[in-house]
Structures are given as C-alpha cells and as structure tokens.
Amino acid sequence: xxxxxxxxxxxxxxxxxxxxxxxxxxxxxxxxxxxxxxxxxxxxxxxxxxxxxxxxxxxxxxxxxxxxxxxxxxxxxxxxxxxxxxxxxxxxxxxxxxxxxxxxxxxxxxxxxxxxxxxxxxxxxxxxxxxxxxxxxxxxxxxxxxxxxxxxxxxxxxxxxxxxxxxxxxxxxxxxxxxxxxxxxxxxxxxxxxxxxxxxxxxxxxxxxxxxxxxxxxxxxxxxxxxxxxxxxxxxxxxxxxxxxxxxxxxxxxxxxxxxxxxxxxxxxxxxxxxxxxxxxxxxxxxxxxxxxxxxxxxxxxxxxxxxxxxxxxxxxxxxxxxxxxxxxxxxxxxxxxxxxxxxxxxxxxxxxxxxxxxxxxxxxxxxxxxxxxxxxxxxxxxxxxxxxxxxxxxxxxxxxxxxxxxxxxxxxxxxxxxxxxxxxxxxxxxxxxxxxxxxxxxxxxxxxxxxxxxxxxxxxxxxxxxxxxxxxxxxxxxxxxxxxxxxxxxxxxxxxxxxxxxx
Length: 504
Prior knowledge:
CATH architecture of the largest domain: Up-down Bundle
CATH superfamily of the largest domain: MFS general substrate transporter like domains
Helix content: over 70%
CATH class of the largest domain: Mainly Alpha
Order of helices and strands: HHHHHHHHHHHHHHHHHH
CATH topology of the largest domain: Growth Hormone, Chain: A
Distance between the termini: 23 Å
Structural class: mainly alpha
Shape: globular
Number of domains: 2
C-alpha cells in the first residue's frame, strides 16, 4: 500500500471508477446539451403553444438564467450536503422538470419547467465535476478522465443540435425534453451503485448573505444580457440590471473577505492559474455559443437545410472536440504545461472563426464551413480539457464543489453573454446593411439575405477577437507546470491558502 508524503496511507483507487466516469459523463452530457437541444425544436413549440416572437427567447434564457445564476449556490450545497447525494437529487429533479416541460400545455408552463431544469442543473453540474475530481487522483488517469469530461463539456451543445434535429423531425419537439428522463434514470441507478463520496464538511455552514449577493448579482447580469437582445443595450431595464448586478457582485466580494465561512473562498479565485482558467473558459464560450446561434440560422435560413441536416452539420465540430480532448490533450497534459495546450487551442479556434468570416449566401458547406468547424473543434478540445483539470487540481475536499461550480459558472455566463452580445451586433449590422443597399424593392429578398449573412460575419469577427483574448489570458495567467512527476503516492496535500500556488 502506498503512502503520502505525510506518512498516512493513500486511499486505494476505486476499481469501478471508470464505470463511475460513465455515470458522471452521462449527467454532464444531459446538462450541457439541454442548453441547445430545444433550439431546433423552438419553431414547432412556438407554433403549438402560441408563444409570441418576443417571448420565445425565454425557452432558452429561462434555462441559462437559472443555471448560470445558481451555480455557486449549487456548488456549496454539494460541499455541505455531500456530492453523491446532491448528484442524485440533481438528476431526479432534472428528470422531473424535463417531464413537466415535455407535457407543457402553455408557454408559462414551458418557461417554468425550463427554469426548474436550470436550477437542478446548477446542483447537478458542480457535484458531477467535484465527484470526478475526488474519484481520479492519479495524474495520468486524471488526464484521461478530464479528457472525456472536457470533450463532453465542449461538444455537448453541438450534440444537442443533432439530437434536437432528429427528435423534432422524426418524433415530436416534446421528446427534446422527454429524452432526459431515461438518461437520468440510468444515471441515478449508476450513481447509487458506483459512485462514492468523500465528505469533509466539519463545521460547515451555508453562507446566506453570500448566496443572496452572489446569486443575485449573477442573475441580474445574465438577465440583463438576455434582455439586451430584444430591448437594446441602452434600455433602462437593461442598464439597471447591469448596474444592480455589478453592485451586488462588488458587495459579494467585500462580504466574502469577511464571512466566517464564505460561499466562495477568495483564495480560489486569487490563485493565478485558476483565475486564468476561469477567464479563458468565459471568453472561449462567448465566441462558441454565439457561433452556435448564427450557424443554426445560416444553415436553415440561408442554405435551406432541414432540422436533421442542420444538426448533422455540427457533427464534425463534435468529433473534432472529442479528438482534441481525448486523443491530444489527455495524452499531452502529463508532459507539457497546460498553457502549451490552451494557447495553441485558442489560436486554432480563432483561425476557424476567421475562416467563417468568408461565408456568403452562395457558400458551400464542404469548402467553407467544414474546414472551419474542424479547426474550431480541435482548438476547443485542446483548451477545455486542461482548463477543467487545472482549475480543479489541488483543491481541498471541502472546496471542490464550489470550485467546480465556478468553472461551470464561467462557461454558462460566458455563453449567455456571447449569445446576447454577438446577436445584438449581428442584428444591428444587418439593419445597417439593408438600409444602405435596399434601393430597389424587387431586390428585397436578396438584399435581406445578404444583409443577414453580413451581420453574421461582423459578429464572427468579434468572436475571433474574443478568442484571441482567451489565448492571451491563458498565455499570461496560467503558469502551472506539467504534472508528469506526480504519482498517487506523492500527490501533495493542499497547502494553506496563504501559500497555495496550485499545479495540476
């Protein structure tokens, strides 16, 4: 039996840990793909339930708003109640909310079900990641496990488009929600029999003021970005949400420095490597989620693809992310520093975005879209896996849930900001283009189509720049070394916050 450097016996590896990874992966896939699976089904749901054009965004926003705003709370609940218990509660609640949404008879019922899904996802996602962190302690195995997790985190949204297209075209839009029920049932049985929790909650209490300030600030900002899409950036409600959110988050940081048991211990975000990972993840997903929106409408509205064909159009992106995460990052992270993967990954992804700025109304998928998706997918795969592994490495057990939640929060908030910000840029650019070029009413359809694609390309230029910023953040802030010299018997125990400079 191996021992740690402190002389204590090292925990034996769980012989069923890889089956446990399957369970965790199932839950993570379900949570991530639900952010996009209803996109392609939205026109059908809108028509059947009589949802107005102004309110249809809430089918998407209700989920991301609850998810992004409540993640920190969900992460701390996982630390206090127990990760396995919270994981199972999240699965059961997510399945129930999905069934409620699938049976919706009104727009309000559907919006409420989507918000419930987001709330339970906020409980489920951090407990899944923290269970992964505590299950795989060997550096080499951690690399493989986080490769799988990173692949799902990056490709789950694209998989959502494929599954959503298939279910909408061949069954019914409601199955985009019902499909979560059997997945959750399988995951619950697997979790009960395969997963083990290492609880360390001595003296832990829930930081109620921190919950109110932190979650309130995040909800206000995410809500402000979601409303900016329809109201405009200078609308009084949007500005009030931004201002209120900033004030609440500033008060949250002030309180966390003084709280006896903070919701988010500040040493987690003060660590240079983690802060770099959080920033890189947020910037990367701003560009990625914006692209999902544009490419969906481009393939269906401009190239005339069916829902299924549109979903399959994202398949190369999904495959490339999986290859980048499991076959490249997972193999190299033991030998190179994380930023040696993250920086090239973001540069490759921004190169893919740059190719997409060349699309026109006559573009061919095979020659102009496909190469860009492959580059983007490989870049994201190279980036996401080391981000998750580095951000969660070396964390004390009692903080693993909230650290995992912070990674997920940066992803969800980045996605919400990206969708609203880039969509507003695209819409404004389209309006300007059409106003300048529509001189003959007979050319209206052509000019609108060209203006729409022009708006997409302008927004994609912005996304390219944002991904270059992500590369810069990773290069300057993530200084962790390669973990190739660590073994299960020499894995260091977490140091005090004052001396902590974590490497994976």
